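Researcher: Good morning. I'm working through a list of sequences from a screen, and I'd like to move beyond sequence-only analysis. For each chain I'm collecting a predicted structure so we can compare shapes side by side. This is the next one on the list. No need for commentary yet; just the structure.
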Amino acid sequence: MARQKRTPCPETEALSEKLGQTIQRLRKADDLSLGHLSELSGVAKSMISQIEKNETNPTLATLSRLSQALGTSVEAMVAQGEHLGPALVEKADIKDIPLLFSEDGLCELRIIGSIDTVQFVQWYDFRAKPGGKLISSPHPTGSVENLSILSGHVRVTVETESWEAIAGQTLRYKADRPHKIENIGDELAHATMVNILAHAVRSIS
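Model: Good morning. Structure tokens for this chain:
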């Protein structure tokens, strides 16, 4: 379920507008009605309409379902930034980096990886308030997620297995099945998350 109350933020307004326009463009390119996209994604028709009109901030789970239904990725839908000269590939300010939220609103992900490598590696800055949970659907078969803890205390659960980690430790786990990251400490948890997708894993194995 999306967060009920939207707090206006000038720094992300342009991104939100672009996201809505992108979803609408992809939907129309596939000749999908709002109702059909709702059926394919499991996202309510009214929610899709609100996203396209820039009237709400969708959660990461909602964007994930929409991107899969539209045959693309979350990163591709929200990526922005101007490519500069031959040496500098891209320069982005904090306000230009897409910010997504977990279902409970207590976790946030900034997509800091390059759109040029998104098919192989997805790189995020992860922060979670105490009690926050980031629940993720399976990534492509063979994918491996790497979570390096910068501060705080987290627990990662993949199906029935769980592991804990604190600052200075890294967990690497199979992400091709349902998985969850929880902040089980009493302070903000901060980590970098790198998801290596299946074809990249096979190429280096």
